[in-house]
Structures are given as structure tokens and as C-alpha cells.
Amino acid sequence: MSIATGALDVLRNVFGYPAFRGDQAEVIGHVSGGGDALVLMPTGGGKSLCFQIPALLRPGCTVVVSPLIALMQDQVDALTQLGVKAACLNSTMDRREAQSVEQAMFSGNLDLVYIAPERLLLDRMLAMLDALYEAGKLALFAIDEAHCVSQWGHDFRPEYLQLSALHERYPRIPRIALTATADQATRNEILVRLGLSEARIFLSSFDRPNIRYTVVEKDNAKKQLLGFLAGRQGQAGIAYCLSRKKVEETAAWLSAQGYPALPYHAGLPADERAANQRRFLREDGLIMCATIAFGMGIDKPDVRFVAHLDLPKSIEAYYQETGRAGRDGEPSEAWMAYGMQDVALQHARIAESGANEGQKILESQRLTALLAYCEAPRCRRQVLLNYFGEEHQPCGNCDICTEPPELWDGTQAAQKALSAIFRTGMRFGVAHLTDILRGKATEKIRQWNHDQLPTFGVGDDLDEYAWKSVFRQLAAAGLVHVDMAEHGALQLTESAREVLKGQRTVQLRRPARRKALPAKYAQSKTPSLSPVDEALFQSLRRWRGDTAREQGVPAYVILHDRTLRELAEVRPTSRGMLASITGMGATKIEHYGDKILALIRSAN
Q1: pLDDT along the chain (604 residues), means of 10
Q2: C-beta of residue 81 within 8 angstroms of C-beta of residue 550
Q3: Which of 37, 116, 328, 501 is most buried, with most CB under 10 Å away?
Q4: H runs (alpha helix) in 430-504
């Protein structure tokens, strides 16, 4: 049997999918044949199959390197439901449990074992891998979340830097490195640091067409979030905040507003963090309020929205965080509120970091790319994908496409704003500069004699809201720098000179006081079920929930909503017909087929 035929058989019989998507078949064929690979594929794009199927096709045990100890057991549970022999080795296990897994690796009773990088690199573990290698019982190394090797990335794990030793120590064993998020600089770093110079690179589209992107100008972030959540009771979501204090305040506030929410940040006790994460994964309709400490590798497929109450630190981080929504392919939302204070805080973070100057420049470029995305006058998906080197047509599924902004020649307004910054010595923030431009003789203005400046009152044709938009767009265009060391003072960049001299025009978009579209916008795109099919769908969901609680696993590990919806629509009447339903592999049919068929019969 050829590799391709064997791979397709495994896909259908074990995982219950009718066909491969995108580059999956090519990746699996390459790796199963012994080749190294770097796979860049968006969240929800089927990365895991790219190493799970080769693990079942190649003789021996596949070692999956994962930094996500808290999620390993859920990943193993999901594979076990499919009849795949899988286990994990991590610091939460006692000696007896660990020895049992190690013995299973030697005896050939494991197809995959998930190991944290720090454990993999212990002398005892390496000695065991040495023995497996000599016995021909090592199949593959899969390095998940490979962007963790990037020393200045958003999820750096120092242990990943040592994983190049795998190739040096076990040269005959293929390696596959996988990530959902990596710009060109991060891709190059992965290849160099993991010693994958000979690896074949598989680069899939970064597009997540089911996610709707919306950015609003920050006014009162919590109230704006509440407006966004209107009608979304019962939906699972993630709300990202910059500080731990804001995380806890937002979680408490949302819960008081009728939206059950949990906090998650690195300052919480480890057992509380783990308990909150477990509840989020296993219960329906919870919102996780979190710092960036939460999210990497979250497999929960039915996260319906990701909301940012503060600006992320880069467009790469933003892409990965929003990618936690809609892994099941159903319509989902990425919503963000941002303002100039966010820009100042992120610039300060870069300035105060221990990075070298070259790295600080790269981080600033990534932040500028995110600002350009926030202030874009064109399709957000186009801007986002262009950053990753992709061309895309206007998507029709972002706030810019559905409510196109009005563009205007803002050259004169830009000159007035830049002149005000220059004439005040580049020592003041947006509020003070706006007062000067609008001719408001406040006490502070008079104290500094700024009511005597030529720019005083020259901008009274725009209101305060409009000037804030102008300053944000100047920052996004790289004409203005926000200096947090000077309490958010705006400073001119070299590029501003051309605008002041009239050598460059500036197109601006008029600020739109956007209201968050209600949840029904996203829901209207979800394939609707007839009333009788909806009743069966809900019956199947209740059965799934009960089954998950009995087994102590998340509901999605049993079956995804997408599978339940297809079951409710198609209403199969035999085990043979169940095999045609997406997600119904042989083991799941064996375990749950009779009960599902009984529920369908009772609904007819």
C-alpha cells in the first residue's frame, strides 16, 4: 500500500474525515517518507493531523514536543477517543504513572507521547530515547508551537533553543516543526535554531475566513465590550487585557453583568489558573479574561469571539490571539478597542525591554504594522494577510468592508498637528495638543503660553474626537512617535519633515463612531437548522454533555458541534451511514453509534 493510500485510509477510518485539506496530504506524504518539514498553517487548519497520521504510518513511537502541560491530557484524551494509543509525560505525573508510560513506549504500545521540552532534555529521558533509537522504535519528532524558539517572540520558551540537539543525536529520525503564527523573520529563526536548514517548508494561507474583524476607537472599553456582547449570552469567548489588575476587574464586572467570566494571568496561584482553564475548556458559555499568559494551543473549537480591551504588542501576537476563535470553522468575531494610550504603553514596553537595538527596531516595526491595521481605510483581512505576504480581495466580512470609511485629504490637518507638536518642543500628549489646535485656553495652556502660538485655534474646524483620530493615524503612518518616558509625549519622526514641507500628501479616514454589530450578524451566517433538526441537535448536545461529564473530558473531545449539526440534518439510520458523517471515525462509531442512532430514531 502506498503512503498516500495509507494516509487517506487513516484519515477516514480513524479521524472520520472524507478528504485532506490544503497541503495536508503533501505534508503527511513527505514526513511519512522520512523528510523534515516546517509547517505554517492557521489555527483550525488541521496542523495536528500533519504529525498524527505519520505517527500511525511509521513504525515506532512519535515524540510530540509541546510546551502546554496543562493541555496535554486533553490532547491525549481526544486521541484516545479515536482509538489512537497516546499518552503524555510531564511534571504533574507521579513516578509510577511516568514509568508506566515509559514501559509502553518500549513495548510498542504507544503511537504518540506528548512531552514538555524541559523534560525531554533531561539526561534520563535522553538515555531512554537513545535506547529507543538503537532499537528502531523512534518514529518521528513533532515540535509543536515551533515559534516558541524565537528569542524575541511573544511566546519564547528557552528550552526550545536546545531542541536542535534532536537532529544531532538522532539523525535518522525525521522532524516536523509546526506553528500557526510566524512572519518571515520568525520563520528564518525557527529554521536556524532548530537546525532545519534542509527541511521542506509548507506555507498555507493564513486566512481565517470565518472570523469577522472589527476595531473600534477606545472610549469606555468596558461599556463598549458590553455593547459587543449584547445577545451573546451563552457563547464562549476570550477577553484579553494588558494588566493583571484589569483582568481581575473585568472578570468580576462581566460576571456581575450576567456574563460568567473567569480570570487568568501569571500572578494567580498555579492551581487556580489550572482550575479556571479546565472550567473554560469543559463548560459551555464561559468568558476567560486573560493576559497573554493564556491561550497558546487552546483546542476549544467553539470559542465564538476574542475581544481585545487593549492593544496587543504586535500584529503577529494579534493574529495568534484572534485565531483562538472559531477553530470549528463556524462564524466567529475578533473585536478590539484601542486608543493612543495603548500605543504609548507598547512603545514603552519596547524601549524598556532588554533587547538589543536591532531587535527593538524589529519590534517597533511589528507594532507599527498593527497600528496600520487598526487605522486601515481598506479591508482588514487584506492588511492582515499582506503582512504575512499574501494577496487577498476585499473580504466582505470585516467592519471596513461592511461600513466603508470616508477618506479625505488630511494634509493640512496633518501639517497643523505636526506643527503643534514641533512648536511645543515635542513634550506634550494628545489632549494638550488638541486643546491648542481647538483654541481652548485652559490653565495649563496659559501656564505654558501656548495660547500665543501660531497654531493656537487653527484646528477649530475639527472636534476633539476627530483630532484624536488624526493623531492616531499619524502614529500609524509613522509620522509621529509616542514617547512614554515623556508621559506619552508625541515626537516627530524624520518622515514628518516631508509633510511639513508640503512634499507629501496625507490621506486620512474620517472617524466612524461605530457601534458593535449585534451577535445576530455572526449568527446569521451560521447554517440554520429547521425547528425539528434544531431540537435533535440540542438533544445530541445534551447527550454529549452528559457523556463528557461521565468521562471527565471536554465535550468537544466526544464530538464537535459541527458533527452534531450534520447528524441532525442527515439523520443517518445505520452504522454504515454514520461513517459518512464528518468526525465519525470507526472508534467513535463503535463507542457511540448505537446511542446516536437511538436518539435519531426517537426524534423521527
Answers
A1: 84 92 93 95 86 95 88 88 93 86 90 92 91 93 90 75 90 93 82 92 90 91 92 92 93 95 92 89 91 73 93 87 89 91 81 79 80 86 86 91 88 93 91 92 91 92 87 82 67 90 88 52 57 92 92 90 92 91 92 94 85
A2: no
A3: 37
A4: 430-438, 443-447, 464-476, 496-500
Report how far residue 534's alpha carbon sits from residue 546's, in angstroms, rounded to the nearest whole number: 19
- In three-state secondary structure terms, 46 is coil
Pairing of strands 211-217, 261-264: unpaired
Angle among Cα 133, 135, 140 to the nearest 5 degrees reads 40
Query: Burial, 549: exposed, middle or buried (Cβ in 10 Å; 0-12, 13-18, 19+)?
Result: exposed
pLDDT reported for residue 512: 64
Can you give 260-289 as a three-state secondary structure string? CEEEECCCCCHHHHHHHHHHHHHCCCCEEE
Secondary structure class of 92 (helix, strand, coil): coil
> Which residues lie across from 38 on neighbouring strands?
177, 201
C-alpha angle 373-155-350 in degrees, rounded to nearest 5: 60
CB atoms within 10 A of CB 100: 12
| 558, containing H or E segment | helix 555-558
Instruction: Write the CB contacts of 474 (distance below 8 Å, at least 6 apart in sequence).
Output: 414, 417, 418, 480, 506
Q: Which three cell numbers stand for residue 52?
A: 498524527
Please name which of 150, 96, 103 lies closest in space to residue 131, comparing C-alpha atoms: 103
DSSP string covering 315-335, please? HHHHHHHHTTS-TTSS-EEEE
Parallel, antiparallel, or unpaired for β 489-492 and 480-483?
A: antiparallel
Q: Any idea what the Cα angle at residue 316 is, between residues 182 and 167, rounded to 5°?
A: 25
In this prediction, residue 523 carries a pLDDT of: 42
Q: Quote the CA–CA distance of 340 and 442 in Å, as a whole number.
A: 21
Q: Give CA angle at 354 (349, 358), nearest 5°.
A: 90
- Whole-angstrom distance, CA of residue 92 vs CA of residue 37: 31
The pLDDT assigned to 465 comes to 80
CA–CA dist 59, 359 (Å, integer) = 43
* φ/ψ of residue 180, rounded to 5: -95, -15
Report pTM: 0.78
- Helix (H) / strand (E) element for 114: namely strand 112-115
* Spatial distance between the Cα atoms of 179 and 493, rounded to a whole number of angstroms: 35
Taking each helix axis as running N to C, give the angle between helix 69-81 and helix 270-282, from 0 to 180 degrees, rounded to the nearest 10. Answer: 30
Which helix (H) or strand (E) is 409 found in, with range? strand 407-409
Identify which of 479, 473, 427, 483 has the alpha carbon closest to the alpha carbon of residue 450.
Answer: 427
First to last CA, the chain: 42
- For residue 147, the 8-state DSSP code is G
Residue 519 confidence (pLDDT): 46
Q: What is the pLDDT of residue 526?
A: 53
What's the chain's Rg over C-alpha atoms? 27
Helices (H), 20-122: 24-32, 49-57, 69-81, 95-107, 117-120
Under 8 Å between Cβ of 299 and 74: yes
